[in-house]
Amino acid sequence: MVKGLYTAYTGMINEQHRMDVLTNNLANANTNGYKKEGATSQSFSDQLALKIKDYTDAPFTARGLGIINPGVKIGEGYVDWSEGPMKETNNTFDMAIGGYGFFGIEYTNKAVNIERDVANQTNIMYTRDGNFTLNADGVLVTQDGDYVLSQDGGHIEIDPDLPVEINTLGEIIQDGEVVATVGRFDFEKTTYPDGRITYNNLEHYGENMYIPIDGTNAVESTSALYAGFLEQSNVSVVDEMVNMIAVQRNYDTNQRMITTVDSSLDIAVNQLGRLS
Question: What domain range includes position 130?
Fold first, then answer.
């Protein structure tokens, strides 16, 4: 009976974790290039319940009572890398990648935080958010002022007084000449039998940035680049709300289970065997 309390408790902890993931997805439903996350559940290994120190059986022999499962535990998290819908903005410096790949960003930490504890530290990060602009020096930057990298890893500097054309190869053309190429980078992917892919060597940072781990090196992506478009989040608000309702109901079910077991324990401890 007490094991039932533990099983229901682990179920509540798991549903709470799933709810945290869902609410984070909903919070980023309008974040450019955001990839929704998910959570899996795993059961604890089944255990064989044994009856011990029962001398009605053969001495020093444990007799099996059956298989028990002590509940559920939080499994692995995952990212849905499917492409989000593209939104036309008609802004030359808004860019979207069709297919797999990332933009390279020279990210400078603006303040001390738990992820990067050294202010003004610079790291190369990768994102699907192509909401770029030109700074006062004519250098292509993000909305936070971080430099966008060219295909060779340098900064992209153009003449702000000349018309700009960007083709699907990422080439920035001014006055009939290619002055720079917007970097498109990719990493080794794992493909599952159902066709899904995942990046096991990228770590999530913030809303839509990713950091390569374990010394992983980026390679050039061959995916097309579309200027004047932005990739939206691949989060479906309706789906996330439906999942949230299901999670809440599962949580309530486990909560009622604890209340039921508690009532049964109260009867067993305070009422059974009472002398009238």
Answer: 86-186+221-231
Q: List CB contacts of 7: < 8 A, sequence separation 6 or more.
A: 69, 70, 71, 72, 257
Q: 204-258 pLDDT, tens per residue?
A: 888 789 999 887 889 999 999 999 999 999 999 999 999 999 999 999 998 998 8
Residues 72 and 150 in one domain: no
Judge if 124 and 227 occupy the same domain: yes
Rounded to two decimals, the pTM is 0.80
Token code pair at residue 122: 């610079």
Q: What is the mean pLDDT of residues 24-51?
A: 80
Alpha-carbon distance of 187 to 86, in angstroms, equals 22
Q: Are residues 181 and 73 in the same domain?
A: no
Q: Whole-angstrom Cα distance, residue 238 to residue 183?
A: 34
* Angle, CA 220 vertex, CA 128 and CA 123 arms, to 5°: 60
User: How many domains is the chain partitioned into structurally?
Assistant: 2
The continuous run of DSSP H or E covering 242 comes out as helix 237-270
- Rounded-to-integer distance, Cα 208 and Cα 22, Å: 16
Residue 260: in which H helix or E strand, if any? helix 237-270
